Amino acid sequence: MEKIILIGDSGHAKVIEDCVLSQGGKVIAKLDDRYTERFRNDLIERGPIELLNELLLDDVKVVVSIGSNSIRKKVVDRLSIAPDKYATVIHRSSIISNSAQIGYGTVIMPGSVINADTTIGNHSIINSSSVVEHECSIADFTHISPSSVLTGNVQVGEGSHIGAGVSIIPGIVIGPWVTIGAGATVITNIEAYTTAVGIPAKVIKRKKAYQ
Q1: Is the pTM of this model over 0.85?
Q2: Is 134 a catalytic residue?
Q3: Residues 2, 11: contact at Cβ < 8 Å?
Q4: What are 2-17's pLDDT values in tens digits?
Q5: How far apart, in whole angstroms, are the C-alpha atoms of residue 51 and residue 61?
Q6: Catalytic residue selected from 12, 91, 123, 134
Q7: pLDDT tens per residue across span 136-164
């Protein structure tokens, strides 16, 4: 039984806990800096993130259970633990090609499909019922929201957030730290540090840095 510590205790953490349970694993702690004291609830240890050093034993691994890409990246940088201490969590109802590669700290939610020769980076979220088709490349700290469809050969840059129900046609390149609004259809490349919405998706906002 794999033992997991979740960093972040929110609704997103509840879904990740379900994914862990579906693998036959167990969440032993949920650490969040909104807690100032250590306590137990539902047989799970809770407390501030500083407890990680005490709880991270040889047979325990970590997932950063924070939905925001930028905050998740900041927390990973703060933790500064070895890559092999992060778990990769894949819900048993998902369908993963044998030729797909999935990085550490990444979570694949229920009903997702990851097809042939796709690469998914570290600390990313492939949310419920998403489809990531053949030969896609998904970078670190991304979030593919529920029911999104990425057709073949789509590239998604670091930190980008693909909103719920987005469709992306083949061969599209999404730059780093992009936000694609829910329900959009992407038919042209989207440059880095922008927000795009609509059908077809058009850039409506530019950012100065990742956020």
Answers
A1: yes
A2: yes
A3: no
A4: 999 999 999 999 999 9
A5: 14
A6: 134
A7: 999 999 999 999 999 999 999 999 999 99
